Each structure stands twice: as C-alpha cells, then as structure tokens.
Amino acid sequence: MPQLTFKTRTKFLIYMHPRDWYNAGDDAKILLSAAPASSEIFVFGRPGDDERLKRSLEESSSALLLFPDASAVSVEEFLDQKQGDITADISAPGVTAIVVIDGTWNNVKQMQKHFTKEVAPSVPHVKLMPTSLSVYARTQTRKDGISSVEAVALLLREFGESPVVCDELVRYITVNNEALRLTPPVADDGDEGETG
C-alpha cells in the first residue's frame, strides 16, 4: 500500500479502541500507510494519549469528529461554518484535523461520549450519508455501517479530494481483506527430502 498524495490540507487523528490496536484486520491502521506524515494513532484509555490528542487538536486550525450522532452536522454545514478552502498542499497553513473513532459500534459509542466530554467538547461532529455498501471484511452491525477508512474516503471526496485517491484508499481495504484471507504456510517439521 504505497503512500498517497492528498491535495486536501488534512491530518488524520485515529482514536482507537484498545481491542483494535492488536487486531490485524483493523482498517484504520491503513491510514498510517496511505498518509504516514499526517496520521497518528491515539489509544483510548492508554495513559497520556488523551493529552496528546488534545495537543494535536490545538495545533490544527480546525477539527471535526467523524461520528453520526444526534448533534452531527452534514459535511456541507461544516464547510459553511469553516468558510475556508481545505484543498491545497498539506504543508500549507490551515490544516483540518479529522478525528476518526475506530472500533466496533458498541465500543465507539462509549469512546464518543468520553471524547465529547473529556477530550474536545467544542469539536463539531460530522455525519456522512453513505450510498454504497461497505467492502470491509468485518461484519457491519448497522445497515449504513462503513469502516473507518471508507468514512474518511467519503469525507475527503466531499472535501474535494481527487476521486482517484479516494478510490485507492478504499482499494487498500480490499488489499487488507485479501491479506487476512491468506492461509499461513504449514510449519516445516525438519524432514525435507524424505518421502513416504
């Protein structure tokens, strides 16, 4: 999964449930390959990570939490409130931090409450309107459920990111899915060359 070149001035702050930290199938880690210079993982409950996340949010000119709760606004409403262009070189001033809560639906609801109360009460929540089914290998518990990376790709597309880059980001999920389906080789018992 080679690094992608994004035209949007965004950084990805992945707020990950501890169970997903060790999950090889977790898709949010794909962002570390796709955008290593502008992605960072924070583990929910790990000492110091809430403080690091707060600092990273403070360093951004604007931020959003990608989460479809009752207070969430549409992407269009967020962009109207922001009143700025987020398409330009990532090194330009004015980077928008996209916080992605990563975990199963039951886990992320608890994390969202903590994030909103303890980490960043003033960060707006943004919701998406997905129109396609998820390609993610993990079973979705919601009809409109999509993976973290699919959500990021949809958001970036609405921000004006290149459709080619967004499609490639989603393709990385299928690459990860295929890697998870591979059967590991059978261990060699040291009897090479013998038959029968």
UniProtKB/TrEMBL annotation:
One of its GO terms (biological process) is tRNA processing. One of its GO terms (molecular function) is tRNA-uridine aminocarboxypropyltransferase activity. Keywords: S-adenosyl-L-methionine, Transferase, tRNA processing. It comes from the Eukaryota. It is an enzyme of class 2 (transferase). It catalyses: a uridine in tRNA + S-adenosyl-L-methionine = a 3-[(3S)-3-amino-3-carboxypropyl]uridine in tRNA + S-methyl-5'-thioadenosine + H(+). InterPro entries: DTW (IPR005636), DTWD2/TAPT (IPR039262). Residues 1-185 form the DTW domain. It holds the Pfam family DTW. Its EC number is 2.5.1.25. Belongs to the TDD superfamily. DTWD2 family. This is tRNA-uridine aminocarboxypropyltransferase. It comes from Polarella glacialis (Dinoflagellate).
